[in-house]
Amino acid sequence: MARLHLPRWLAWVGAPLVLLLLLVAFWSWDWFIPLAERRASAAIGRTVTIGHLHLRPGRISVLTAEDVRIANPDGFAADAPFAQAARLVAQVDLMESWRRNALVVPEVELQQPVVEAASRDDRSNNYTLDVALPEPGQPAALQIGILRIVEGRAHIVLPHLQADLRLAIATRDEGGAAPRLAATITGTYADQPITGEALGGAVLALQADRPWPIAVQLANGPTELSLEGTLRDPLALGGAELRLVLRGPDMALLDKLTGVPIPRTANYEVAGQLDQVDGRFRFREIAGRVGQTDIAGTLTVGTIESRVDVVGELHSRRVDLADLGGFIGEEPGRVATPGQTPEQRRALARNEAQARVLPDEPINLPKLQSTDIRISYRADSVIGRNVPFDSLRTELEVKDGVVHLRPLTLGVGRGQIAGNVTLTPAEEGRMRAEADVQFQRLDLSRLMQATRTFEGAGTINGRARLTGTGNSFATILGAGNGTLTLGMSGGNLSALLVDLSGLRLANAVLSSLGVPGRTAVQCFVGDLVLQRGVLNLRTVLLDTEDVLVAATGSVSLARERLDIRLRSSSKSFTIGTLPTSILVAGSFRNPSVGPELGELVARGGAVAGLAALLAPVAGLLPTIQFGTGEDDRCEAMVRRGAPPAR
């Protein structure tokens, strides 16, 4: 039988062809998975695993990776990955990659990606990746054109912010050059429910040095936030040019959102421009209101050695002192403030009805100790219930928990009350307060306007010093020590005020009708001492052209009780006078004012008895007070700076 001889060339060609056909028939791109996993893991500093890998060759080759996972770092859950995607589809331009000497990927699509980001109480987290970035000026080894996200989800847990957020993330085609990133947000933040929507620019433009558009609408509990504008460096929140609008019932709720401690406030709405200067966020061109108070100015917030640092300059055309109640522990605002929540109205009603007058809300020390603050504030005019103040200025500084007001100045007519106040942290959550306040040419007419009853003119000068320790405004005063001195020389005072102090009945009636209107003041001196919360009236003397009025007694700031006696002595022969003492007693909330009953009844009984036995004129004899004559003790006391001889 003849043997079949194949050409030698066919043997040389056929064998490789058969091997090639066998290779194509049994080829699996999964063979390259270990290589791809090693390269990806080295690029981000985290273990990366791939379930399946496939490549469709062509000028624009399509690489598909399935079940892609990025592991958690050590110390976090090993069974659940930090991130995973059902499928990653990348288009690779081979010719352009050859030309640029870099891997050029015109488009990447992530299908059903899921991210589980979390931090712990020690601030360690699983979302910080060790990504190797190219040197400045060097081209990136990987160049991606468009990134699409389909049905993405993220779960973010940040215990230090009391945050548990769930995001639905996808890209949205809006006819532009690249799809924009969109997200909806639900969950909790600052232990308050949060909902919102965010729309940004193209995902891959996050790292580009060009403005990245962003629009955010959030509702965190009752707080609403609107943010719209651009970021030049979104990943670092840099190069911001944003319009920020904030509104809500209480600025204290912004603590977790901003990292800046703010006392409780009335409802507010503020807007302004948010940008970044020298690594600090700046909220400028602020315009808005807090309760009944308008607010404008600039605030900058940054960090210095892991501490929040706040610097600002704020201004109000008109401030309502009720809106500043949160700074001293009172319920801020008024019941009639528009937009106030029912809870705030009920709390304010409870505060109005409670027995105490001095604010006893504890001062929050931990917040103050974590933040450094330097803010200057001025208000052109001041409004409030029976408030004699016309303007307000202060320089607030907080450093290591120590609060300085240097100075705090309140305008009163042509004069002012100006002082330095320091609050220093003490043991057991308390604060030590030190205040040195000067009363400079206080306008008596402005003070009297606050009473809505009496009138007067003149200027008052004086000084007060106070020290005390406590955890609230009330407890500091209730355990305080210090002195208060006041003096006025010249001027005049509503005769009604003077007459009532001595129950000069006839003149009081005429004074209430406006006749006479005023009485000249020779001198007024007040010398009071505060000892362990009790304010003792050491010397209080009012010397007028008609009468000399002295006050004695004490005021307990701890118990909020009054025990004051006013006594007047006429300087001339006077008819129609019952020279009895006036007692001011009771609580701060419900004081009582009236004559000393025992003395008044005795004198009243004498009047009635004489009136029955003698002629009506004779019945007036017990009411006749013979004048003490001119008394120069007040003038001498002012001149010597010492209390009068008794």
Model description:
The chain is α+β, with helices and mostly antiparallel strands and 646 residues long. It is 17% helix and 48% strand. The protein has a 31-stranded mixed beta sheet that branches. Helix 9 (495-501) runs antiparallel to helix 10. It is elongated.
Give the structural class. alpha+beta
Measured on Cα atoms, how large is the radius of gyration? Answer: 40 Å
The rounded distance between the terminal residues' Cα atoms is 157 Å
Shape: elongated
Q: Percentage of helical residues? A: 10-25%
The chain-level mean pLDDT equals 77
Quaternary form: single chain
> Helical stretch count?
12
The major sheet is characterized as: 31 strands, mixed
Total number of beta strands: 31
Task: Give the helices and strands, then pairings.
Blueprint: H1 8-26, H2 33-44, E1 48-56, E2 60-70, E3 83-93, H3 94-100, E4 103-118, E5 142-150, E6 152-158, E7 163-172, E8 180-189, E9 192-202, E10 212-220, E11 223-233, E12 238-248, H4 255-258, E13 268-277, E14 280-290, E15 293-304, E16 307-320, H5 342-353, H6 365-369, E17 371-383, E18 391-399, E19 402-412, E20 415-425, E21 431-443, H7 444-449, E22 456-457, E23 459-470, H8 473-478, E24 481-489, E25 492-494, H9 495-501, H10 505-512, E26 518-531, E27 534-544, E28 547-556, E29 561-570, E30 582-587, E31 591-595, H11 597-613, H12 633-640
Parallel strand pairs: 4-5, 4-6, 16-17
Antiparallel strand pairs: 1-2, 2-3, 3-4, 6-7, 7-8, 8-9, 9-10, 10-11, 11-12, 12-13, 13-14, 14-15, 15-16, 17-18, 18-19, 19-20, 20-21, 21-23, 22-25, 23-24, 24-26, 25-26, 26-27, 27-28, 28-29, 29-30, 30-31
